[in-house]
């Protein structure tokens, strides 16, 4: 009974806070070819007093779309594990997406049926710094997409991957749910995950270990049900279970045309 009395005033505040009010506006700056992640926190859409946490009884879901269109732009995706969890907008903008895009987000309180809106102004530009011609994509079977979108697990993945790459800064380029690549929805058994593809880029070349695991010989072994040619210690285990038979590498080819080199010749996959 005491617990019920404790949450009652908070729920009253929530019902008042998640009203159909004028849309908030936030400006964000995604970069072409770099992963963009924006968290839709319940706290952002609820006018709560300072230092008051969102109670677990609140159920909020979100709907996001490109202004003037029913859906999101092709490069941007939305995911939310449950109404208790935050939502995520994520993706990697392409050169064709440069410029201004406005995303309209509506939050629905599933208990009170109130709504609130937010307008995200995306100013999409080019990244600064060196090019990242050496790119690798990994299928991580131990995680779902929303589990690697927060900054902490993403940084942990890059840090662990550094042990399998030549020294140099690694950057996260894209995150894609395995379901969006034709993967199957896992059985409702504890511990089963959907899987997620994580794409990473660097100005530094690949290590011999990475080149070997993505080689035709390694792929041939995988096709026969044998383990891949992983010649180094798996620094990603046990936190990330990578499918080493599903590693894709891309790197620059020699080209004397400079910036006129076609994209299909600039990057090569084994």
TrEMBL record:
One of its GO terms (cellular component) is sarcoglycan complex. Keywords: Cell membrane, Cytoplasm, Cytoskeleton, Glycoprotein, Membrane, Signal, Transmembrane, Transmembrane helix. One of its GO terms (molecular function) is calcium ion binding. It comes from the Eukaryota. Residues 1-23 form the signal peptide. It is found in: Cell membrane, Sarcolemma; Cytoplasm, Cytoskeleton. InterPro entries: Cadg, Cadherin-like_sf, Sarcoglycan_alpha/epsilon, Sarcoglycan_C, Sarcoglycan_N. Component of the sarcoglycan complex, a subcomplex of the dystrophin-glycoprotein complex which forms a link between the F-actin cytoskeleton and the extracellular matrix. This is Sarcoglycan alpha. The lineage of its organism: Eukaryota, Metazoa, Chordata, Craniata, Vertebrata.
